[in-house]
Amino acid sequence: MNNDLIPKHGGFRNLRSFQTAQLVYDGTVFFCDKFVEKRSRTHDQMVQAARSGVQNIAEGSLASATSKKTELKLTGVARASLGELLLDYEDYLRQRGLKQWTKDSPEALRTRKLLSDQSDMSDWSDLSDEKFSNIMICLINQASYLLWKQMQRLEDDFLREGGFTERLYNKRKDFRNGL
User: Would you say 63 and 77 are in contact if contact means Cβ atoms under 8 Å apart?
Assistant: First the structure.
């Protein structure tokens, strides 16, 4: 248990959920610029949903020192934003009559293996819109899973250690008792 009133916080850049969400954001910006009309509402909505995923992870992590409730809430908002983005990619494929990979398709399994090996996914330029969309769906599902696990850990941490208000009370009580 951490006895600091304000514990270490903000290490979001080291979280796999943040790193994966950031890759989703970068990929979505590239995808939308290449395949979605730049002035369309869909372009803006997809980019903003991807950005929200990343930003809410960071904001929640930074808020964690004084509010586990806020951290948990913003982690959930990040996951919800990525869920919205997932639907946009699925809609893109469906509306164009393109194939969406099943969870256990050879393409999806190969993509998940590449992602787990942390292969370089930075060169998106030669991908078709169908393949790109499906890769993004795999990435979003991975980020969503990581965020779900993170939320479960945050819940466990809160139950085990309490929150900021409890730490304030205990520190003040210790101070009055000369501890």
Answer: no
What does the DSSP 8-state code read for residue 10? -
The span from the CA of 148 to the CA of 14, in Å, is 17
List of long-range contacts for 97-106, beta carbons under 8 Å, 24+ apart = 98/129, 98/130, 98/133, 99/130, 99/134, 100/133, 100/134, 100/137, 101/134, 101/137, 101/138
- Of the candidates 151, 162, 177, 176, the one whose C-alpha atom is nearest the C-alpha of residue 5 is 162
Q: What is the pTM of this model?
A: 0.83
Which of these CATH numbers, 2.60.40.10, 1.20.1440.60, 3.40.50.1970, 3.90.1170.50, describes 11-176? 1.20.1440.60
Query: Could you give the dihedral angle defined by the CA atoms of residues 117, 130, 126 and 124, in that order, rounded to the nearest 10 degrees?
Result: -50
User: Domain map of the chain by residue range?
Assistant: 11-176
Q: Is 49 exposed, middle or buried (0-12, 13-18, 19+ CB in 10 A)?
A: buried
Taking the alpha carbons at both ends of the chain, their separation in whole angstroms is 17
Tokens of 68: 């586990």
DSSP letter at 124 equals: -
pLDDT digits (tens, 9 = 90+) for 64-97: 777 788 889 999 999 999 999 999 999 999 999 9
Task: Give the residue from 102, 106, 91, 94 showing the smallest Cα distance to 45.
Answer: 91
